[in-house]
């Protein structure tokens, strides 16, 4: 369940990403091209709902007291939610019909409630309709996620 504020923030972030992409529709993907950033508020609702949606019932993703007993200052986001947000970032940019062919990510600094994560991407390779993107998601503690994603563009996506 999301709150109205969460839904509004999500809708605003998607609109901002699409507007930046559409500002220069003639810009073809090319190595070195930086994608517009996507800023995501990290809320308790996002962390808990992402864990539940991915069937990750580890207490550190929904129970602050249990997380504290295990040495964490609060609940924190799981990798499956992060993976989904990386995918959303790229399909928001390249279009819903693009296909993520390979996602190779690594977690770093945890995403805790009350922080903000900014996803950024840089195209590192283009081979026909296939684009490779280096992705970094940073929060107030450092890089939460780093990795490379291979995207097949919508023109040939099935």
UniProtKB/TrEMBL annotation:
It comes from the Bacteria. SUPFAM superfamilies: Thioesterase/thiol ester dehydrase-isomerase (SSF54637). InterPro entries: HotDog_dom_sf, MaoC-like_dom. Residues 1-35 are annotated as: Disordered. Residues 25-35 have a biased composition (Low complexity). Belongs to the enoyl-CoA hydratase/isomerase family. This is MaoC family dehydratase.
């Amino acid at each position: 369940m999301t709150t109205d504020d969460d839904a509004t923030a999500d809708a605003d972030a998607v609109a901002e990403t699409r507007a930046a992409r559409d500002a220069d529709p003639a810009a073809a993907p090319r190595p070195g091209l930086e994608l517009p950033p996507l800023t995501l508020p990290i809320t308790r609702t996002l962390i808990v709902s992402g864990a539940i949606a991915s069937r990750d019932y580890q207490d550190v993703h929904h129970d602050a007291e249990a997380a504290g007993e295990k040495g964490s200052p609060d609940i924190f986001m799981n990798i499956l939610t992060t993976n989904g947000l990386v995918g959303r970032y790229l399909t928001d940019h390249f279009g819903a019909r693009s296909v993520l062919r390979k996602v190779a990510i690594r977690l770093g600094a945890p995403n805790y409630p009350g922080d903000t994560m900014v996803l950024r991407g840089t195209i590192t390779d283009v081979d026909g309709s296939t684009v490779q993107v280096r992705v970094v998601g940073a929060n107030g503690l450092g890089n939460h996620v780093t990795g490379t994603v291979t995207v097949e563009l919508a023109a040939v996506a099935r």
